[in-house]
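User: Hello! My lab partner asked me to get a predicted holo structure for this protein. The small molecule is zinc ion, SMILES included with the sequence. Please write out the structure tokens.
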Amino acid sequence: MSKPVTFPCPHCKKPSLWHDNPSRPFCSERCKLIDLGAWANEDYKIASPTAPELTEHQSEDDLND
Ligand SMILES: [Zn+2]
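Assistant: Hello! Below are the structure tokens for the protein in complex with zinc ion.
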């Protein structure tokens, strides 16, 4: 009666096995790579020298209106 321990994959939210899972906390190596890739892309955008400044000014204008 021992149920396998499962957890929601941080990327696809599907219940995934904890034990014998080399890609945990992700359900699979694929989700792991996709999620890490998404973070890397966001970091790259944030680190971009021009985009964040423009976005901030636009947001402030919207709030002040
Ligand atoms: Zn997944």
